[in-house]
Amino acid sequence: MASASLQFFAFILALFGAFGDIAATLLPNWKVNADVGSNIITAITQMQGLWMDCTWYSTGMFSCTLKYSILSLPVYIQAARTTMVLSCILSAFGICITTVGMKCTKLGGDTDSKNHACFAGGVCFILAGIFGLVPTCWYTREIISNFLDQTIPESSKHEPGGAVYTGFISAGFLLIAGVIFCSSCFKRQQGAWIYPPKQHHFPSTEQESNAGYNLKDYV
């Protein structure tokens, strides 16, 4: 019962991680630049994401521009696009597989098959967390290095946006869920190896008859 509850908790974490991963991939605020200028009326907030750049004006207007050209983008944005999409795909696969392998469901067949399914789903979650953590770290490093560069003007410097923090939290949820699923299956298998089922040996009928024959010889 405790293992089933732990798997259910890990599944909830994986759901939050998967939804957060998708949201972080689609959000346009990976880096934000607030330019107030000389007048608060002309203040604008520029946001740059993996797929589009958006500008929000203090007057309430909001406009976005899609990034159609892939080759013109920096390397870290291209890598972030690829790894975040892979992270979303792996997390979706992990949710489908662990749904079959969880103990609280009636799918997946016998116990060994469900354990293997849970382990495979946990591996998918761990890989999804790694693929989601690498681009967020790389993207944050580029933002910080540009912010600390003295040769770059202040108007061109940015700060990490909400999508970066969402990516970090989602990657953490996926990693924790994957470790829980893998460790729960491993502990069960290890317990089976350490405490194998006892085999009861019953004496054969032939041995009993021989023993009875030998006792009669001494009478």
From TrEMBL:
Topology of this chain in the membrane: Multi-pass membrane protein
One cellular component term from this protein's GO annotations in UniProt: plasma membrane
Main location: other
Positions of transmembrane segments: 84-105, 117-141, 161-182
UniProt signal peptide: 1-24
An example Gene Ontology molecular-function term: structural molecule activity
Family in the record: Belongs to the claudin family.
Main function: Claudins function as major constituents of the tight junction complexes that regulate the permeability of epithelia.
Protein name: Claudin
Species, as recorded: Callaeas wilsoni (North Island kokako)
